[in-house]
Write a structure and sequence with these properties.
This is Selenium metabolism protein YedF. The protein is built from 7 helices and 10 strands. With 241 residues, it is α/β, with parallel strands linked by helices. It has a 5-stranded mixed sheet. A 5-stranded parallel sheet has the order 9-8-7-6-10.
């Protein structure tokens, strides 16, 4: 009887493990266009590091060709470590915060080859990679001169923030910078990824109202001038592009 129960337990465990990864489709859409390849979903809700990374890496190592993996987790630390793991493999990674307890991490690969070396790799978990500094953005362009060039530079600046080993604790957007967190901004994907990794993103409410964008905020929360001043005053340093 014990032998039967033991085998039954192993079967249930295998089913549980396989249920965490689902092949959704042979084709997927990205940026509004249909892409060839496979799309996987890994459900790591309720799992603590390193389990989300381990589960995702198993899927990543089995992929051949183009694919996208969507990983569901419920904590910012998992988002940070999945992002780091994906980027270390050369994948394109972005994430989105759905709620305080639901985050989606997307890992996209091209021309991927399966990993045949099954030697176990050490998975490190970094609990928090946010520094005690603030990024304050008061314009939609970076630098003085040509505005079109300034927009390109600002987009590049915000992307560069996502690549920092130590992320800012808070990002403040006010005056013209308020347009960067609203509908139509070219930097929404980067800002959503930062928010999903635990960066607090705040936009001046007076500024949103002035530009008629109050109902078009797409990432972060609305704040006021008192909070902006207090946040800057408490930060170890403030970076302005």
């Amino acid at each position: 009887m014990s032998f039967i129960l033991d085998n039954f337990g192993r079967t249930l465990q295998k089913r549980k493990e396989s249920a965490t990864m689902i092949l959704i489709s042979e084709n997927y859409k990205t940026g509004g266009s249909k892409m060839s390849g496979q799309r996987y979903m890994v459900n790591a809700m309720g799992e603590q590091c390193p389990i989300p990374v381990v589960k995702t890496k198993k899927v990543l190592d089995s992929i051949q060709g183009d694919a996208e993996i969507e990983v569901l987790v419920d904590n910012e630390t998992a988002v940070q470590n999945l992002t780091r793991m994906g980027k270390n493999t050369g994948a394109e990674v972005f994430s989105e915060k759905k709620s305080d307890k639901e985050f989606h991490v997307f890992i996209r690969v091209k021309d991927r080859q399966p990993v045949t070396d099954t030697k176990a790799e050490e998975v490190s978990c970094i609990p928090d990679v946010k520094g005690d500094f603030v990024v304050a953005v008061d314009t939609a362009t970076m630098g003085r001169g040509n505005d079109e060039l300034g927009k390109v530079l600002m987009k590049g600046f915000l992307f560069a923030v996502t690549q920092l080993d130590e992320l800012p604790k808070t990002m403040l957007f006010y005056n013209g910078g308020a347009t960067l967190t609203t509908e139509g901004s070219d930097s929404l994907e980067d800002l959503k990824s930062l928010e999903a990794q635990g960066v607090t993103i705040k936009t001046c409410g007076t500024c949103l109202n002035y530009y008629g964008l109050t109902e078009k905020l797409c990432v972060g929360e609305v704040t006021n001038m008192y909070d902006i001043v207090e946040t800057m005053a408490k930060a170890s340093k403030v970076i302005k592009p």
